[in-house]
Amino acid sequence: MRLSTSMIYQQNVNGILNGQSLWQKAGEQLATGTKVTTPSDDPIAASQAIMIGQAQAETDQFTLARTFSRQNMSLELSVLGSIVNAVTTASTEVISSGGIKSNDDRTTQAQALEGLKAQLLNIANTTDGNGNYIFAGYQTTTAPYVQDPTTKVVSYVGGYTPISQQVDSNRTMTVSSIGPDVFNNATGDAVKEPNGSVQKDLFATLDIAINALKTPIAEGDTAAQEALQVALATANRGLRNSLNNVSSVESGVGIQSQELDQLDAIGADRKLANTQAKSALVDTDWVPAISSYIMQQASLQAAYTTYQNMQGMSLFQINR
Cys staple from 176: which of 63, 129, 163, 227, with CB 3.0 to 4.6 Å? Predict the structure, then answer.
């Protein structure tokens, strides 16, 4: 087999080019901290890294969803606390009204209850920071409760589907209650009326007490006095039912808030596991990478030296 001078040179040039490529690749790993910069570097690792990245993107989306959910729940918990305070105050007013003998005093009590009713109506139409009504379901742009200017009856006109949010891959929860669940509902152990019905509409309950207290009673009219006491007793039972119901809703929201904290902890662990798994696949292993860089550098320097020495071995140089 004959070896020409050009063939020998070409082999040395190829060795130099190959050495440069390997040395630059090792240097790139050190510079970027990544050993898989293109899929061709390690197709399997690159594919698995993409899958992990997609999983992490989903985890981040759920983390953001839980942040918004927690904001909604925090606002609702604050509002529910205000409702509890107002209903408790109304119950105290109703109970104390039973011993009042003067029509004027009863009218004053009625006005106090009207003020509490207006306060609760305003609370029922609470909006969040974006102007959305929190108790209106998905009809967030319309006030859920309206009061007839003549009869003073309060009615719900909002949506009947609570707002829900997917907060994890297998968990969807209600993040904002609808008005009827808060203001027009009762728990399973609600106090019943003598006829077996349950007084559960908060605004209607207040109207019962207000209308009874605003009705004048003539001195000695025992029938009217008894009717007043019956109305106040009904209102008192209704307010107790409403208070228990709001407290139940408050408890449910609180439990979901705690669940969000647990899901956040799980999400943080999942994110750490994904980060570690992806790092093991594509990040530079520094000790072997540095060793490889040094060895490739030495190999390239040897290739340069060999090439320079070969220049003096040409037949033309020998015969000169």
Answer: 163
CB burial of 233-259 (b: ≥16 within 10 Å; e: otherwise) equals bbbbbbbbbbbbbbebbbeebeebeeb
pLDDT in tens, 242-279: 999 999 999 999 999 999 999 999 888 888 887 777 66
What is each CA distance from 156 to 26, 133, 143, 145, 201, in whole angstroms?
70, 13, 9, 5, 11
DSSP state of 210: H
Residue 80's alpha-carbon distances to 139, 176, 316, in angstroms, are: 20, 11, 99
| Locus of tokens 């072997």 | 288
| pTM of the predicted structure, to 2 decimals | 0.75
pLDDT in tens, 59-108: 889 899 999 999 999 999 999 999 999 999 999 999 998 887 789 999 99
In the chain, the domains with their CATH numbers are 53-276 (1.20.1330.10)
Sign of CA dihedral 43, 48, 49, 54: positive
CA distance 168 to 163: 16
For the chain, the straight-line distance linking the first and the last C-alpha, in angstroms and rounded, comes to 25
Q: What CA–CA distance (Å, rounded) separates 133 from 146?
A: 13
Report which secondary-structure segment, H or E, holds 165: strand 163-168
Number of CB atoms found within 10 A of residue 200's CB: 20
**134, 75 Cβ separation under 8 angstroms:** yes
